[in-house]
Amino acid sequence: MQFVEAHGAKIPAIGLGTWELSGHGCSRVVEQALRLGYRHIDTAQIYNNERDVGEGIRNSHVRRSDVFVTTKVWTTHFAPSDLLRSAKDSLVKLRLSEVDLLLLHWPNPHVPLEETMGALAHVRDLGIARHIGVSNFTVALLERAVAACPEPLVCNQVEYHPFLDQTRVLAACADHGVALIAYSPIAQGHAKQNEVLTRIGAAHGKSAAQVCLRWLVQQNVAAIPRTSRIERLSQNIDVFDFELTDDEMVEIFSLGSPQGRLVHTPTEPEWD
Ligand SMILES: NC(=O)c1ccc[n+]([C@@H]2O[C@H](COP(=O)([O-])OP(=O)(O)OC[C@H]3O[C@@H](n4cnc5c(N)ncnc54)[C@H](OP(=O)(O)O)[C@@H]3O)[C@@H](O)[C@H]2O)c1
């Protein structure tokens, strides 16, 4: 497994996304993923599956210190006292004494960012989260968050796959030593229909989804693909034994555009 490093955090380059997984199915997939070698699990308060994720981690019998667990605070809990309560509540549900990474899930323009960043840093100081970061932050918001936060931010988790150009966000993350964690890294399954990705994959004996993940890893980006199928769990982590050429990387970059975004919310910021 490779790692993406940022401000002392060692983030396993491939993790398991758990959005829309729940109940016994979720805990089973988490357990199976850890048994297959995954060491990074991504959940969120709003996914309503932190209990199941925690159960999967325990059932795997992988040492807690070997697993990088991320959760996210929902936007309605960004006032300082709410944020602390919410972070503690996530620990209770996960049955963990700390998470490795705690993120603000989306920007919330209705709560002063400076207050929220102070509260997030406080949660880190208390040992509830080993590292802190943000998600769905634009370049301008990331700049403000970094300036307002007394502790380093280790990541900005954003949508990123070959069909979405994230050049500006990548550059801003690099400027601040912030890791980019790619969500929807195989374009919510759409990658598999793409002719370019399929052709490049065939040249390496890999699938289009694996090409997406490899393309991200080669940019020093971490990715958190989600699947509920055991055979795809194995496939999605099997991306460390081949390398895309410079020409293939460039060809995949040419698929990207600002219109390639799949995830939208009514309150989303004005994207870069
Ligand atoms: N911070 C945020 O706001 C945010 C937003 C969205 C997502 N996320 C996180 O990012 C994770 C991943 O994003 P995502 O769930 O939107 O999309 P994704 O991982 O890009 O795609 C998941 C979809 O692709 C299919 N799939 C998985 N592996 C495959 C493979 N090897 N070949 C073909 N199809 C495959 C899955 O179906 P099967 O289950 O049938 O395999 C599922 O329908 C989420 O689970 C969540 O943890 C965060």
In a few lines, what is going on in this structure?
With 272 residues, this protein is an alpha/beta fold. The protein is built from ten helices and ten strands.
Describe the structure.
There is one protein chain. The chain has helices at residues 23-36, 50-60, 80-94, 113-125, 139-148, 167-175, 195-204, 208-217, 230-237, 246-253, and strands at 3-6, 9-12, 16-17, 40-42, 68-73, 99-104, 129-135, 153-159, 179-183, 222-223. The chain is α/β, with parallel strands linked by helices and 272 residues long. The protein has a single domain, classed as TIM Barrel (Alpha-Beta Barrel). The strands form 2 sheets. An 8-stranded parallel β-sheet has the order 3-4-5-6-7-8-9-10, covered by helices on one side. A two-stranded antiparallel sheet has the order 1-2. Helix 1 (23-36) packs parallel to helix 2, helix 2 (50-60) crosses helix 3 (80-94) and helix 7 (195-204) crosses helix 8. The protein starts with a strand and ends in a 19-residue tail after the last helix. The mean pLDDT is 97. The structure holds NADP nicotinamide-adenine-dinucleotide phosphate (NAP). NADP nicotinamide-adenine-dinucleotide phosphate (NAP) is lined by residues 17-19, 42, 105, 135-136, 157, 183-189, 192, 207, 209, 224-229, 232, 235-236, 263. Pfam families: Aldo_ket_red.
